[in-house]
Structure formats: C-alpha cells, structure tokens
C-alpha cells in the first residue's frame, strides 16, 4: 500500500477494524508454518456507517391523564386497551359535596345581585312617603317641645321672682319662717329642673327633625358611587366563587384529551383519586416517532423536514416513509451523540412502541461492504477474496465497484457479510480449505 494514501484507512464513514499490521504491497509470500498453517493478516469487513441509523419507536402522543381534583371514584368508563375519542369520559368522581358548594355559591351571588339591583333602582315612592311622614312627625314633636319650653320658661321665671322675694323677706324680717323658705326653695328648684328638661327636649326634637330631613334628602339623592362600587365588587367576587365551584364539579368528570388507546388505568371504583396524580395513560399511534442518537460526525448532514426511509426488522419487506421533525442543537448529557426524532405514519397500526427501526436518508444507496484492493485475488479472470472462518480459508468470488485507487465496494454477496474476516495480501497459493494463522 502507498504511504501517500494512508488517510484512506480512517474515513469517518467507515467502521472497519484491522487485525494485525498490514504489510506493504508486494510483500514476500508467506510460507507454511508447522507444515499446514499459513500466517496471514486479517481485516474485519464493515459497512458504511451512514447507511443507516438505528433508533427505537415511541408513540407520537403519550398522555398521562391526571385528576385536577381529589375525590372518590364513582365510575370507570374504560378498560386497558380501549379505543377512545377526544372528550370521551374516562373516570367519574363523586360530586355530591361539590354540587352543594356550587349551590351555596349560587345563592350568595343571587342575594348580592338583588342588593345591587335595589340600590341602583333607588328608593321607591312608598319609602319617600314614609320618610316625609317621619319628618312631619319630627317637626310636630319639635313644635310641641317648643311650646313646652315656653311654658317651662314662664314657670321658671315666675318661680324665680317668688323665690327672690321670699328670700329678701326671710333675710330682712322674721315674718317668713324657715319652713316657708324651704318650701319656696323647693318650688324654685322644681321650676328650674322643668325648664332645663324642656330645653333638652326641644334640642332633641330639633335634632330629630334634622336627622329625618337628612335621611329624606339622602334617599332622594340615591346611592353614592362608592356604595355602588362596593356592591359591584361583592357581586364580582361571588361570581368568581360560583365559577370556581362549577369548574370543580366539571373537573370531577375526567375526559380523554386525545384520540387514542388506553394503555394503563391506575384507579378503580371506590378508590381515592388524588389531585395531580396520574390515573390513566393514553397513547396515539396513528403516527409514531423514531428516537435516534446521532453521532457528531453525522449530525451536520441531517435537517429538520428532510425525508427519510425507515425499515423495521419486525415488519420485513416494507419500507416506511418518514420525515425528520427534530434535530437537537445540543448533544446528550453523557455522550457526544445528538437526539433526533423522525415522524412516521402508522395508520395501519403495524408499528408498536419499543420496536427497533433503521433510518436512512431518502435516496441513499443500500449499505455496501468496503474492501481494500490488496485483499483481492485474480484467478481465471475472476476476482476472489479469502474469507477466514474457524482458521480455515474459503475463497469467495466477488463483484466490485470502484471507490478509489485503493478501495472498492463489494456488490451484495450472500457469502460475504459485514464483520466477517478476510485475508489482506493473500498468498496466491492459498486454496479452499487452507489452514490459516493470524499474525
């Protein structure tokens, strides 16, 4: 082999591994060892590494259905394996307590709405008339209190004059006894108390008139904006409470979010479903995805949207059309490979999650074996390679296509497969059945 072409031994697309050190072209023929074994250098055949990428099939949609509320399971509508449509009921939780809470919220909202409506409508005629009547009554009471005050004032004035006169007489002469003076003082104090009480009654009556008039005026003016805002806020709050209660009742009926197949059910009737806990698993396999881990040497050749061909060993003699739908720009955490996803139509339902699939770019030729020209023998206008099996030589006729000056592609051959070993620079004297010894 020429040293100028040594780089051909390490192309990124090959998976060949060489056993031993290959001798240069034109090396002397190997001689027999121990009388029957011929020493040879061997090479393991490999395929083009970009001829196919292996991955595993996963569902296009894999939904873990959870309950939004906690509750006791009242009914289960599906079993594992059941086909469901989007919106089909899967699980029904008990709703008695939840429905009562919704009813209470609705009653509170109705009362708040009634209060707001009455306040907006303002006072009725009957209310205005009643307040007018109350004002007139207060005014009449004030007039009566005023008259009583005048009478009490006159009585107090008269009592004051009599007391002063009696006091002067008592102080200047002995004609007025102590008993007369005490009696006069009592009458004065009595009149004074009556006058003060009448003053208080008149003030109270005037205050009642002012209060009745203010209430009438306020009622005629209607509610303030702050009053209306407070009532509106209460209605909005109770509306939200009712909406939440109704949503909770609705969430007790758990439905399928997609069309698909139930593959797992975690609860039964009578058990408790916890909010946020998975209760049903549903997959949609109308389309599937092939998850690939692509080497960094190949990732640059893949683009999202590119068409690919998919082969599945469990579905022989059929090639599926696929499309690359995701090429990750970030490698896997623990390797230099990159996640890639391929979407494949599965309307026939022949592909199952977990199957291994091989993905090849559309238009890429089938995998070919690569062989160094130094491994070939020409005999009788035919080309052979020496395949080593169990330390025994087997001559295999091959047909090839040119790759470059040192390598060829081997056309499909049932007797020659990848990973098998062949002799490099074989001795022309090696024949079928010759015993070989790898160096």
Question: What's the arrangement of secondary structure elements?
Answer:
Layout: E1 17-19, E2 37-44, E3 53-66, E4 71-76, E5 83-84, E6 89-93, H1 96-121, H2 125-172, H3 178-221, H4 225-251, E7 253-255, E8 260-265, E9 272-273, E10 278-294, H5 296-299, E11 307-311, E12 319-327, E13 338-345, E14 356-361, E15 369-372, E16 376-379, E17 382-389, E18 392-397, E19 400-402, E20 407-410, E21 421-424, E22 435-438
Parallel strand pairs: 2-22
Antiparallel strand pairs: 1-2, 2-21, 3-10, 3-14, 4-6, 4-9, 5-8, 6-7, 8-10, 10-13, 11-12, 11-14, 12-13, 15-20, 16-17, 17-18, 17-21, 19-20
Helix pairs in contact: 1-4, 2-3
Protein name: p-hydroxybenzoic acid efflux pump subunit AaeA
Pfam families: Beta-barrel_RND_2, BSH_RND, YknX_C
GO cellular component, one term: membrane
């Amino acid at each position: 082999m020429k040293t100028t072409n040594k780089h051909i031994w390490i192309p990124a697309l090959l998976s060949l591994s060489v056993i031993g050190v290959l001798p240069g072209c034109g090396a002397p023929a190997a001689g027999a060892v121990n009388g029957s074994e011929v020493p040879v250098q061997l090479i393991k055949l490999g395929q083009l590494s970009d001829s196919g990428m292996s991955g595993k099939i996963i569902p296009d949609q894999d939904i873990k259905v959870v309950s939004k509320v906690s509750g006791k399971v009242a009914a289960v509508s599906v079993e594992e394996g059941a086909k469901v449509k989007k919106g089909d009921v899967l699980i029904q939780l008990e709703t008695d307590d939840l429905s009562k809470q919704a009813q209470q919220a609705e009653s509170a909202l109705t009362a708040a709405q009634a209060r707001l409506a009455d306040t907006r409508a303002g006072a009725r005629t009957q209310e205005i008339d009643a307040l007018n009547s109350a004002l007139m009554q207060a005014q009449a009471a004030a007039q009566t209190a005023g008259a009583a005050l005048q009478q009490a004032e006159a009585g107090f004035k008269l009592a004051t004059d009599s007391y002063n006169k009696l006091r002067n007489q008592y102080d200047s002469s002995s004609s007025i006894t102590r008993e007369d003076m005490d009696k006069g003082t009592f009458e004065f104090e009595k009149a004074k108390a009556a006058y003060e009480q009448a003053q208080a009654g008149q003030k109270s009556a005037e205050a009642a008139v002012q209060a009745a008039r203010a209430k009438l005026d306020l009622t005629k003016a209607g509610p303030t904006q702050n009053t209306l805002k407070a009532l509106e806020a209460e209605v909005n709050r109770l509306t939200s409470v009712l909406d939440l209660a109704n949503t909770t009742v609705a969430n007790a009926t758990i439905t399928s979010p997609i069309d698909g197949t139930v593959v797992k059910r975690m609860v039964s009737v009578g058990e408790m479903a916890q909010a946020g806990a998975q209760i049903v698993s549903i997959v949609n396999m109308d389309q599937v995805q092939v998850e690939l881990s692509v080497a960094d040497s190949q990732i640059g050749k893949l683009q999202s949207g590119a068409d690919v061909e998919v082969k599945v060993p469990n579905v022989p003699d059929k090639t599926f059309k696929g499309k690359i739908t995701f090429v990750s720009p970030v490698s896997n955490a623990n390797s230099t490979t990159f996640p890639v996803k391929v979407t494949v139509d599965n309307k026939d339902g022949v592909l199952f999650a977990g199957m291994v699939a091989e993905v090849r770019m559309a238009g890429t030729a089938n995998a070919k074996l690569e062989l160094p020209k130094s491994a070939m023998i020409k005999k009788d206008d035919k080309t052979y390679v020496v395949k080593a099996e169990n330390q025994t030589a087997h001559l295999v006729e091959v047909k090839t296509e040119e790759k470059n000056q040192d390598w060829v592609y081997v056309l499909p051959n049932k007797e020659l497969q990848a990973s098998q070993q062949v002799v490099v620079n074989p001795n022309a004297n090696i024949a079928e059945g010759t015993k070989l010894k790898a160096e």
